[in-house]
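Field log, afternoon session.

UNIT: design team B
ACTIVITY: writing a sequence onto a fixed backbone
BACKBONE:
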C-alpha cells in the first residue's frame, strides 16, 4: 500500500488535514466521536481511489482533495451506522465508537458526517457530481436496509448477495472514480468507464472481505472472526455451502444464520473449506477483478494508472 500511495502521498496528507479541519464543531461530542473513528486509520481506499483517478487524468486539483474528503466522510458515516445496526464491538483493532460512546452518539455523529460531506460537495459547485453523489448515498442507504431485511434469512440467493454488496460497498468505489473523473473534466464516457472500474473493484474487495470473515485472523483484520455469522449475514462462502454441502453442513449453516449464533463457527469454517466456499468466492472475486482491469485498460500508462492496477491486484491478495 505504501508504494501504491506514493504517487499521491502529498495529496493524501492534504486530505487528512482537511478531514481534521472539517471535524471541528461547537458540540464537543461531535469532535470526540468523529476523531475517534477517523483517527483509527483504516485503508483509506475510497479517497485513495479518487486521488489516483484524478492523477491519472492529468493531475490532482484542489477539487480532488475536497472530493476525497467527501468520500471518506460518507464511508465513515456508514461505518458508524453499520456498527450500531450490527451491534459490533470491534473495528480496526479497537472498540467501535458505539461500544465506547453509545449507540445514540454514534448514529447522530454519523448524520453529522453525512451532512458535512454534502456541505463540502456544495463547495465544489459541480451539479453533475452532486447529483451523482446524492443518488449514490441513497443507494447505499437502500443497501443497508436491504441487508437488514435479509439478516437471519437462510434463503438469500447469490444474486441477492451481489445486489446487497453492490449497493452497500461497490457503488461508493464507483462514485469515487466517477466524481474524480468528472472533476478532472473527463468526458461522460470516460467517467462511466472509470465508474465501471470502481464498481467491479468494490465487488471484488467485498467478496474477499467475506472470505476473510471465515479464514482471517482477528488481530490482523481488526475485527472479530465470524462477525457476519453473528449478524445473520448469509455471504457467498456460506451460500456455496447451501449449494454444495452435505445435508448436515447445510443444516449447520441454516441454523447459525437464522439464530445469528456463532457457537458452531469452528465447524462452519471447516465446512467452508471442505466445500470450497472460500475458493469459489475468491474465483468470483477474480472475475470482477478482471472486469475492473479491463475497464482500466484504455487508460494511458503512468504512475497513477499503475497504482490503480496494483490496488486492484491487492484487492484479491490480502489478509485484512
Amino acid at each position: 500500500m505504501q508504494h501504491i500511495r506514493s504517487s499521491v502521498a502529498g495529496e493524501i496528507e492534504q486530505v487528512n488535514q482537511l478531514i481534521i479541519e472539517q471535524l471541528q464543531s461547537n458540540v464537543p461530542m461531535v469532535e470526540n466521536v468523529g476523531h475517534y473513528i477517523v483517527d483509527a486509520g483504516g485503508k483509506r481506499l475510497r479517497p485513495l481511489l479518487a486521488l489516483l483517478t484524478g492523477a491519472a487524468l492529468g493531475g490532482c486539483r484542489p477539487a480532488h482533495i475536497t472530493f476525497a474528503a467527501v468520500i471518506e466522510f460518507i464511508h465513515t458515516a456508514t461505518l458508524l451506522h453499520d456498527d450500531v445496526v450490527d451491534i459490533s464491538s470491534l473495528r480496526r483493532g479497537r472498540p467501535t465508537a458505539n461500544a465506547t460512546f453509545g449507540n445514540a452518539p454514534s448514529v447522530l455523529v454519523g448524520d453529522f458526517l453525512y451532512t458535512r460531506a454534502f456541505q463540502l460537495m456544495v463547495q465544489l459547485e459541480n451539479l453533475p457530481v452532486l447529483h451523482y453523489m446524492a443518488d449514490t448515498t441513497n443507494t447505499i442507504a437502500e443497501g443497508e436496509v436491504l441487508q437488514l431485511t435479509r439478516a437471519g434469512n437462510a434463503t438469500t440467493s447469490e444474486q441477492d448477495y451481489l445486489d446487497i454488496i453492490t449497493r452497500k460497498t461497490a457503488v461508493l468505489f464507483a462514485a469515487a472514480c466517477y466524481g474524480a473523473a468528472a472533476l478532472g473534466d473527463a468526458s461522460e464516457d470516460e467517467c462511466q468507464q472509470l465508474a465501471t472500474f470502481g464498481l467491479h473493484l468494490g465487488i471484488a474487495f467485498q467478496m474477499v472481505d467475506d472470505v476473510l470473515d471465515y479464514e482471517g485472523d482477528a488481530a490482523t483484520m481488526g475485527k472479530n472472526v465470524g462477525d457476519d455469522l453473528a449478524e445473520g449475514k448469509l455471504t457467498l462462502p456460506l451460500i456455496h455451502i447451501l449449494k454444495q454441502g452435505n445435508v448436515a453442513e447445510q443444516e449447520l449453516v441454516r441454523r447459525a444464520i437464522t439464530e445469528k449464533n456463532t457457537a458452531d463457527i469452528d465447524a462452519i469454517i471447516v465446512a467452508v473449506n471442505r466445500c470450497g466456499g472460500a475458493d469459489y468466492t475468491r474465483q468470483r472475486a477474480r472475475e470482477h477483478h478482471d472486469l475492473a482491469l479491463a475497464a482500466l485498460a484504455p487508460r494511458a500508462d503512468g504512475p497513477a494508472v499503475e497504482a490503480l492496477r496494483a490496488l486492484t491486484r491487492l484487492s484479491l491478495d490480502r489478509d485484512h
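LOG NOTE: The chain has a mean pLDDT of 92.
NEXT ACTIVITY: expression trials, pending approval
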